[in-house]
Amino acid sequence: MTQRDDPAPDGMPKLLCRNLWKIFGQNGAATLEALGPEAAPAQFAARGHVPAVRRVDLAVNTGEIFVIMGLSGSGKSTLVRCLSRLIEPSAGEIWFNGRNLLTASESEMRELRRHKMGMVFQHFALLPHMTVLQNVAFPLEVQGIARADREAKAREMVSLVGLGGREDAYPRQLSGGQQQRVGIARSLAADPELWFLDEPFSALDPLIRREMQDEFLRLQSVLKKTIVFITHDFDEAIRLADQIAIMKDGLVVQSGTPEEIVLHPATDYVAEFTRAVPRAKVVRVASVMRDATGPTPAAQVAATAKVADVAAQFLTEDSVCVLDAEGEICGHLHRADVVSLMLGG
Amino acid sequence: MRGLIPWVVAVLAFWAFTRFGATLAPWAFDWPRAAILPAARWITAFTKWLLNEAHFGLFTFQDLTRAISAVIGAPYRVVTGLLSEGFAGLPPLPWIAVIGLAGLLGHRAGGWPLALLVSGCFLFIAVFGKWTSAMITLASILIAVPIGVAGGLALGLAAYRWQIFARAITPVLDLMQTIPVFAYLVPILILFGFGPVAAVIATVIYAMPPMTRITLLALRRVPDELRDLGHMIGCNRQQMTWRVMIPAAKEGLMVGVNQVIMLSLNMVIIASMIGAGGLGFDVLAALRRLDFGAGLEAGFAIVALAIALDRVSQALAHERPQALPRHVYLKAGLATIALAAVLALILPAAQTYPAGAQLSTGTFWGEVVKWININYFDTLEAIKNALLINLLIPFKRFLIALPWAGVALLLAFCGWRLGGWRLAALSGGLVVAIAATGLWEEAMTTVYLCGISVAIAMLIGLPIGIAAAEKDSLWRGVRLAIDTLQTLPSFVYLMPAVMLFRVGDFTAMIAVVAYAIAPAIRYTALGLQGVDPRLIEAGRAMGCTRWQILTRIKLRLALPEIMLGLNQTIMFALSMLVITALVGTRDLGQEVYIALTKANPGRGLVAGLCVAFIAIIADRLISASAARARQKLGLGT
Ligand SMILES: Nc1ncnc2c1ncn2[C@@H]1O[C@H](COP(=O)(O)OP(=O)(O)OP(=O)(O)O)[C@@H](O)[C@H]1O
Ligand SMILES: [Mg+2]
């Protein structure tokens, strides 16, 4: 049942949106046209419209975790619902695998969602009258897959998320964390290429949240999906993201790698979030290493590792070798640099 | 307090107009005879035209009604055959089989306790010799409920999908729920003839609007996320409706099903007037003979049926994971039927409950009434007369003497102050419409009976509600009582009232109070319990006494809710009032009832619409003032 992966055309990201707008209220598109893209939110509000998403540009590459971070009401859910066309954008373009989603017909969109997209919801969205297994098998059932096949696949997914043995439980008999595992299993049942997660862990307690984040990273290391992950929690974003976009009042105020954002916040608003983030947890070894000169140290670390994760090495070493993706030595990391980064905050 | 001045001015002006206006403008008191709208004649003529001449090209209107009758009649005959008459030479299901099946259904829905309760109710009916009547009533319900549920569901789904349809259907639903049931019995009688099929149709029409409304509400309450989920996994329309939305809305929908069942029972009883037969007919016949014992017994059988149906349908709303698989019940059901059939062949008593073993309390109740009349006749009579002379009659005279024009202006003023021009136009306009039909006096009689009954119901209900809200144990008891009261068909309330006070306005009032008191209690208690506990704590911290907390905090904050209770009480009272026409009131209900007996659809519908107008005026004005009260308290809308 594995899907043929439509690769994105050369050089094009898996998912791309350009100048995307969503204005809530009657005839949002016409209002946008009338007021023009430079209009202030208050001008929309005066006409009873809510400009929830404004001129958003995003590019999500194959296999990466793209996190959209913003406070409540900043338009994250609206954006992700536009990307999956659960709601119709007021203006802009969305390209998925090199085709324009906004020109897809309803039935084409249905096929795309059935086979290529999965979504995890903040409040789990489990159907209360179905067991865990039935919930997970539901997307396959909708596709008309025979019962034995879909249940086998669902069982596989349930054990993948660590819920083996609870197949016959009803959602209300599970804890919040377990319910979200079911939601995750369900969203993966149809082997999607593009995986949307709308604040999947926000409704969970902090300890469980952390556990689920680890679980999520573990899953992704196996599955290698292209992911759009929504959160209002900056720490969560830093922890999970390959790329982050920070939203405020419907605008993307900055996007980049966690490291870029923490080291070079574009606005005071972003700086406010980054202030409390320990630099060593974000900065990669490659950013602080020096040229490989002098004797070669015995210990080795990867260039992509976070500095905080390799800090323990310096209890015994003065410097370590840094290896690039090919395993070649590309530099040395010195204790002094690590210490100053960690103390510097 | 400045807001009071316009009210005082308006009331003074109204008083002056009433007092001195009669000579200046007599037309404002009595609607000129020449200007009365012959609406009744128009409607009657229209019905005649429909019946005799209307033609839709391929078929006539009469063909259509005949087709509907046939579609409903066929399954009805099957079910009555099964339950009470037998068919193709076979006897009907033995009574023990029916009791067994009822028990199984109870077990499926709620385990052994419910199984026992349900079989117990049916056994009660058999023992008291009401089996045949009860099975006829049950057959009508078994036909009407699926049609009502399916129809309501379809309309609700349509309203959910198309905003325009929702907007178009809402006023129709409002009107349907306020028009008294008698009023549309008449046209149905004309169109479909006398008999059980017409009764089933009336029942379906009566029970469908709440189902439609509840369906729409339940679907709208389904969380957005579940809807998004359906789209995300690529459901098509049907899958979206049947696999996602309806299962997700199931609990709400089952409330609707319960409503349909209870309303159907109520209506099937009332529809005995157009030939439904069964228990309703027994009550009606007893009422006409003034045979209290027989009427009360039939009433008890209705209560037993109501309790069984209500509890089962409520229990079905909740998933019961420990219930046995469906096929077990299916097999057990077939086994029960087979066993009972074999037993019935050997033992006639298993086929029909032996007449010799029937109990009858009829004579007992007759004796009770006699005893009460011998010992308490004077007391009861004294109470009745005192209230009639000092309260009911003066109030009635006062209302009837009011000028319609003054009432229209005063209510329009209320509407304007409470909700703006639209409400003013609606209230005033409806008053004028009532006056224009020439039924002003009957309408005022309705208002007087309704007003007095509601006042008494509130006077009794408020303290009970307040007391119940203070004490949990009391509330549990009270709630059980009012829940049970509310499941009883309105017909049942007439019997005891007639037993004690015979016929007349006073009897009607007693029955209406008994019927309408439940919402007065319920909304008061719920409103008080819903007050934010932090505010009560704050009051206690300031050193308020219990009394102060109650009057200064709780009652103030619960006011909007209590007003909704008042609103419901009025609606209940109006719907009961029409039925009390059977005990000889002289109001709009009587008009409808007469129209029913004379099969005059115009007269019935016009009077029915007048009742609906009164209900709509009361409903809109009270809702508007409740909304204002909420706004003032900052409770949002
Ligand atoms: N259907 C709608 N109609 C009108 N306005 C809407 C609608 N849905 C969302 N909005 C508005 O759009 C803005 C963005 O909402 P959105 O739900 O996308 O925020 P969010 O970032 O997901 O917030 P949260 O963290 O609370 O989920 C908000 O101001 C919200 O009130
Ligand atoms: Mg959101």
What would the keywords be for this entry?
heterodimer; A: 345 residues; alpha/beta; 4-stranded antiparallel beta sheet; 14 helices; B: 637 residues; mainly alpha; MetI-like fold; globular; binds adenosine-5'-triphosphate; binds magnesium ion
Give a written overview of the molecule.
The complex is a heterodimer of chains A (345) and B (637). Chain A has 345 residues and is an alpha/beta fold. Chain A has helices at 28-35, 41-46, 76-83, 106-116, 132-142, 147-160, 176-188, 206-223, 234-240, 258-263, 268-274, 285-288, 307-310, 335-343, and strands at 15-24, 50-60, 65-70, 91-96, 99-100, 117-120, 194-198, 226-231, 243-248, 251-256, 300-302, 319-323, 329-334. In chain A, the strands form 3 sheets. Chain A has a 6-stranded mixed β-sheet, sandwiched between helices. Chain A has a 4-stranded antiparallel β-sheet with strand order 2-1-4-5. A 3-stranded mixed β-sheet of chain A has the order 11-12-13. In chain A, helix 5 packs across helix 6 (147-160), helix 5 packs parallel to helix 7 and helix 6 (147-160) crosses helix 7 (176-188). With 637 residues, chain B is mostly helical. Among the domains of chain B are: 145-283, MetI-like (MetI-like fold, Orthogonal Bundle), CATH 1.10.3720; 377-401 and 437-633, MetI-like (MetI-like fold, Orthogonal Bundle). Chain B is built from 26 helices and no strands. In chain B, helix 12 packs antiparallel against helix 13 (292-316), helix 19 packs antiparallel against helix 24 and helix 22 packs antiparallel against helix 24 (546-579). The longest helix of chain B has 39 residues, at 362-400. Chain B is globular and about 85 Å long. In chain B, 48% of the residues are buried. Chain A binds chain B through residues 81, 84, 86, 110-111, 113-115, 117-119, 121-125, 127-130, 138-139, 141-143, 170, 190, 196, and chain B through 223, 225-226, 228-229, 231-236, 239, 243-244, 247-248, 250, 319, 321. Residues 76-77, 199 of chain A line the site of magnesium ion.
